[in-house]
Write a structure and sequence with these properties.
Number of helices: 3
Largest sheet: 5 strands, mixed
Order of helices and strands: EEEEEEEEEHEEHEEEEEEHEEEE
Mean pLDDT: 77
């Protein structure tokens, strides 16, 4: 990513149809809403002074943005309400009065001249993980299983977050439509539906983290055909161990994700 008088090596990039964010090699979070005016989020909570304050992943969604730190903590902020939104429009109003900070490419130029600024706002720290079951057949070593359970990846849906732990648990947090509406991380769901590795449900369920439940899915077991003969499984799952290592959003659906 290249902007006027500043070069940023983007380590992680996320976007939706409203805004985009970039996490650079220095763990600095940049947000792009107004054309040519990316701002840097400044907060002691994300100051990179410890694992708890060092961002490693960012996620854009509607109507919030989120960041995962090295320690597994998650922070969120809302771009269309609250303190950040008020400060954003105040700063944009001031910049609009200054003609020197407009993003206009000069004749013959190849670089968009951008004006960067700082947004001093403390994001909201989301709830910590609940007590989770021990997944004994993940293939992890005894030493790895004894480590503190923490989030290592996140992905964002509309108003929700999906989280993946270092031990293979997949969880979901709903209610992220406003600053004061965030709920808690859920692992167990009473009602859900799976389509291959696409999950669209109220909360996450162990069927995506525990191998004995995954094997019961129709994709991994033989089914009866029209001729009453057994059809082989679509995918052969012969292993007795399983560890989920990745989660990602299904952008075209807005409410689904893959593991």
């Amino acid at each position: 990513m290249e902007i006027y008088s500043l070069r940023i090596l983007s380590f992680n990039f996320s976007c939706n149809n409203i805004h985009a964010m970039a996490l650079d090699a220095n763990s600095t979070i940049w947000t792009l809403i107004d054309w040519g005016r990316p701002f840097r989020l400044v907060s002691p909570s994300l100051g990179c002074s410890s694992p708890e304050t060092t961002p490693i992943q960012i996620e854009c969604s509607l109507p919030f943005s989120a960041v995962l730190t090295r320690s597994g903590d998650v922070y969120a902020w809302w771009l269309h309400e609250g303190t950040l939104w008020d400060q954003y429009w105040k700063t944009v109003g001031e910049l609009d009065k200054d003609g020197s900070v407009k993003a206009v490419v000069p004749d013959g130029g190849t670089v968009i001249p951008c004006h960067t600024w700082e947004m001093n706002v403390d994001p909201v720290k989301l709830p910590t993980l609940p007590d989770l079951p021990d997944l004994s057949v993940t293939g992890l070593s005894e030493e790895e299983r004894k480590k503190v359970t923490r989030l290592i990846k996140i992905t964002a849906l509309n108003g929700s977050l999906i989280g993946l732990t270092n031990k293979g648990h997949v969880l979901k947090m709903d209610g992220l439509y406003k600053e004061d509406s965030a709920q808690v991380w859920h692992y167990v769901s009473e009602s859900a539906r799976m389509i291959w590795y696409l999950l669209t449900c109220d909360t996450q369920l162990p069927s995506y983290s525990e191998i004995d439940k995954v094997k019961k899915h129709s994709a991994f077991r033989a089914t009866a055909g029209d001729d009453s003969e057994k059809r082989p499984p679509q995918v052969e799952l012969s292993s007795d161990t399983m560890l989920i290592t990745h989660v990602s959003c299904v952008a075209s659906r807005g409410s689904g994700f893959r593991v």
